[in-house]
Write a structure and sequence with these properties.
alpha+beta, Aminoglycoside 3'-phosphotransferase, Chain: A, domain 2
Length: 353
């Protein structure tokens, strides 16, 4: 339930009238989200987690720039950005909490669990369309909302710092995973090779391509990308790699039984075809050729982040039991091994430039 004084201020700032109903949609790890039903229409209200995003104004600036670009250059693209209030502002502060209001897209829904390869195709296509539509947007104008978010070398440095400072007991429990991570540093070398290659370009990337960040219509077709707080300059492997990490296995990162982790070939094909249907003519030949390596970069990076957090007493990722980040680390390392063991087809087998 929203505090009455917050609801009153929202009514005044957004000209909401009549009997207002509020339904909590998410009490997630990052932002809290509600659906607000009014006589004026239906809306999405979101409270920003300033522990994750300490500078909400940067997100606000980014979304305003993107909205202006889409309005001028791609007016048919469904950009789900925040709505300006009567003061012309797209963000308001109440009780030291930052709030935003988004339109509710009628007839749309999100998914928490990905069970069909057709949905993987739709999601990948939507994330591809997002970056493709911004191909001529100057990504250097974007504010960095989470510094070094998908920078693998930085994440490895964080891990080494955490290892040096960790308690002996935590080190003992984490040793076998640390050894596995140390044995995969060729992925870091590949990452550094990619980001310094002049045919590997910085683009406007979403950086958080989980399935719940896509709106689907009633026919099961993807219609829009949402949750744009991590939109920043990035490289080709971020979005494709995060989709491979989260879409390909039939079980998620919380699964303890690593024998259940596998790469589903039909989902790999769906993600690749969906993404390239929008991006094949945007990516360079070098990026197209190395696209399927993206999954290894992002999965290795996530294993690093989980193990780092374990060594730092689980200060970032929410945990319901003490060794949960170790379970997540083992999970991601197994997924990485599965990715490295399969013979992945070249993207050009799906699309010819």
């Amino acid at each position: 339930m929203l505090p009455p004084h917050l609801l009153q201020q929202l009514q005044q700032k957004y000209n909401w009238t009549g009997n207002i109903q509020v339904q909590q949609i998410s009490d997630g790890l990052i932002n809290h989200t509600w659906k607000v039903i009014t006589n004026t229409g239906d809306f999405i209200l979101q409270a920003i987690n300033t522990h994750v995003f300490p500078h909400p104004e940067k997100m606000d600036v980014n979304l305003q720039m993107l909205a202006a670009y889409f309005f001028k250059e791609a007016p048919d693209y469904l950009f789900v950005g925040p709505i300006a209030n009567v003061d012309g502002k797209t963000m308001m502060v109440v009780d030291n909490t930052f709030y935003r209001v988004f339109p509710f897209i009628q007839g749309s829904h999100t998914q928490e669990i990905l069970s069909r390869s057709e949905d993987a195709f739709e999601a990948a296509q939507q994330f591809g369309k997002f970056t493709a539509a911004l191909a001529h947007f100057n990504t250097n104008h974007l504010q960095i909302t989470i510094p070094f978010f998908h920078h693998l070398s930085f994440r490895y440095w964080q891990f080494k710092q955490a290892w040096q400072q960790a308690d002996d007991g935590l080190k003992k429990q984490a040793q076998k995973y640390a050894t596995q991570i140390a044995g995969q540093t060729q992925i870091i070398e590949k990452f550094n090779y990619f980001i310094h290659k002049n045919t590997c370009l910085q683009r406007t990337m979403h950086h958080d391509t989980k399935i719940s960040n896509i709106l689907f219509n009633e026919a099961g077709k993807g219609v829009a990308v949402i949750d744009l707080d991590t939109v920043m300059p990035g490289f080709f492997f971020s979005d494709m790699g995060d989709m491979m990490r989260t879409y390909l296995s039939p079980v998620g990162e919380e699964e303890k039984d690593i024998s259940l982790i596998e790469v589903r070939p039909d989902f790999l094909q769906a993600v690749t075809e969906g993404y390239l249907s929008a991006m094949v003519h945007v990516l360079t030949d070098f990026e197209n050729e190395h696209l399927l390596y993206s999954g290894q970069i992002m999965t290795y990076m996530q294993a690093l982040r989980f193990l780092t957090d374990y060594l730092q007493h689980n200060c970032y990722y929410a945990c319901s039991y003490a060794d949960q980040n170790l379970v997540r680390t083992a999970n991601q390392l197994q997924l990485l091994a599965q990715m490295q063991n399969i013979s992945t087809p070249k993207p050009k087998q799906y699309f010819i430039k």
